Amino acid sequence: RRGVRLALGSAAAVVGGGVGLGCYVASSDWLSASASLFSLGGGVVRAETAPPAELARTDEDASAVSRSVDDDVGKFSWRLLGSLLLPDLHLLLAAVVASVAAALLNVQIPVGISQVVDSVMRLQGADWDQLKTVMGPALRLLGVYAAQSGVTFAYISLLGCVGENLAARLRRRLMATLLTQDVAFFDRHRSAELLSRLSGDVQDFKSAFKSAVSQGLRNATQTVGSLGYLVAMSPRLSAFFLLYIPLVVAVGLGLGSMLRALSKRAAAQQAAANAVAHEALTQMRSVKAFGMEAEELRLYEGQVEEAAALARRLALGIGLFQALSNLAVNGVVLTVLCGGGVCIGRGELTAGELTAYLVGVQTAMRSAANLSPLFGHAIKGATAGGRVFRLLDSRPCIEIDRGRPGLLTELAAPVSAGQDLVRLENVRFAYPGRPDAVVLDGVSLTVPSGCVVAVCGRSGAGKSTVTQLLTRFYDPTDGRVLLAGRDLRSYDPGWVRDRLVGLIPQEPALFCATIRENIRYGRPEATDAEVEAAARLAQAHKFIKAFRAATTRTLASGAGGQRRSETAIAIARALLKDPKLLILDEATSALDSESERLVQAALQQAMQGRTVIVIAHRLSTIESADYVVVMGNGRVLEASALAIFRV
Ligand SMILES: Nc1ncnc2c1ncn2[C@@H]1O[C@H](COP(=O)(O)OP(=O)(O)OP(=O)(O)O)[C@@H](O)[C@H]1O
């Protein structure tokens, strides 16, 4: 009978494990299921997943955060996840098989333990013949342990590789998507936010994926498998034990929901304290000017004390929860021991089977407990993944699609000196991020080929905006920008930026690379001779010689020298492209007068024989222009040949 019972127990463990596994896998909606579970539970997870600044302080905030979490979870796509996992499908399948095997082997351990204990109990002495009867079951159990260790190693390492590949693939795809977005996209999304998508969110998504596959599969299989084993071994004892569980769960749920509410209040209070500190630290000059240091400290102390009081209550609650959990677990063990003792007395169980039963109870409880944080991880991972997937869905309005048929990659017609290279016709424009603020209100101007056009006007007049339309960072809301008589939209934006326009901005952006590499940026195929020629034209060749292998951090000593060098490199970089249209956006405005004199000389040389738009703020720049355009309030106030302007 004992052998039959053990075989039954072992089979029930496997079947139960299969059922647990099936339920886990079949609940493909587990993400939204867990979302609803947690929204019922009081939203502590929502607070955890929201960035600290968004911690809910009011019910309205809480529902806004919760809406955004639901939106993000909604963006999660199994199809996209599948496509990311496809190259590692074989590794993933092997990891899943190993993980399930580890769980099934684990639920067989009580069977082995019962055999070892029973054979030990039957020992009559310590001679070799007697010990040999224990060796068989012990070696079998050792085999199970060894096999379980082997598959555990396999699934953890395989899944680690799959997870890392998944994260790397997701990061690559996200970065590729970000780099193809138009400039308006970066007006809407701050760089800190995008970096957090690339790093933190991908990390959270990877961790959730790994725990859902490894911990989820394994613990679901183990929980139901162990319960199957327990019921098969002793239905009566199991009924006793299973009746006890709802009571424990009810108490746990009640206490858990109280703790979640308390945790939410403590987090909100801590956020309020942080807000007070943030305000004081960022407005430090005002705090000091009005002598409010003591008052700010009093305010902060009040908020911190309230947060600490809530945190202390939370700590007490968590302690109580932990103590009650221990009591409940020990209560189960004691119940099983007492009930099991009765069963042994009646001859329904052996001592070995009772020991194994206790191991099975602990496995079932531990596995069930391990399943519960998975829902939190799943929500966090799905929210993070949803945020990343939402970005992956972004499509730029101005798309660089090199080689797309129909787009011009040369001037539509040859333009000889003095003819219009660029013309703005009644252009109206508002930035997509602020559609109500009209920045250009019917601007018309002409840039003849081979001429230098200076654009001047007050700050905010829209001068830089004109250059942003010429580089096709944005398209006009109304009106047209014409290049060689054809709408700029009929040209390939990649060609416009690579070959047509060379932009020298006010704040040159240098990358952490050598000076050569910085000049070559935008035309990586340029030869050393071409780089040096461009550098010489921009009068930056002196720096090149001195810092042939240096990084940008060691350009020159002194702020003035550094700025001068950076501007010279930006000029060389723009010239290397040999652009048809050179745009100088207040390129010298941040320089001191000595540096400006040096750079201006370089610019004069660079501008020779080119079509140039120069946004000017100094008379010296305007003097060398052929035409001057004066802008104000998004309009062209005056446009004239310099000769007329001078009169
Ligand atoms: N990315 C943007 N999103 C929204 N508004 C913007 C953006 N860039 C500029 N603006 C606004 O557009 C208006 C015109 O800015 P623009 O930079 O073209 O002026 P500007 O004449 O070049 O001024 P400055 O000489 O100070 O650079 C300003 O009110 C500015 O605040």
From TrEMBL:
A Pfam family matched in the record: ABC_tran
Bilayer-crossing regions: 89-109, 142-163, 239-259
GO biological process, one term: potassium ion transport
Domain of life: Eukaryota
UniProt key word ATP-binding: yes
Cellular component, GO annotation: mitochondrial inner membrane
Localization terms from the record: Mitochondrion inner membrane
Membrane topology: Multi-pass membrane protein
Chief location bin: mitochondrion
Residues covered by the ABC transporter domain: 422-647
Residue ranges annotated for the ABC transmembrane type-1 domain, each copy included: 93-380
GO terms for MF: ABC-type oligopeptide transporter activity; ATP binding; ATP hydrolysis activity
Keyword terms, alphabetized: ATP-binding, Ion transport, Membrane, Mitochondrion, Mitochondrion inner membrane, Nucleotide-binding, Potassium, Potassium transport, Transit peptide, Transmembrane, Transmembrane helix, Transport
Matches recorded under InterPro entries: AAA+_ATPase (IPR003593), ABC1_TM_dom (IPR011527), ABC1_TM_sf (IPR036640), ABC_transporter-like_ATP-bd (IPR003439), P-loop_NTPase (IPR027417), Type_1_exporter (IPR039421)
Protein family: Belongs to the ABC transporter superfamily. ABCB family. Multidrug resistance exporter (TC 3.A.1.201) subfamily.
Protein name listed in UniProt: Mitochondrial potassium channel ATP-binding subunit
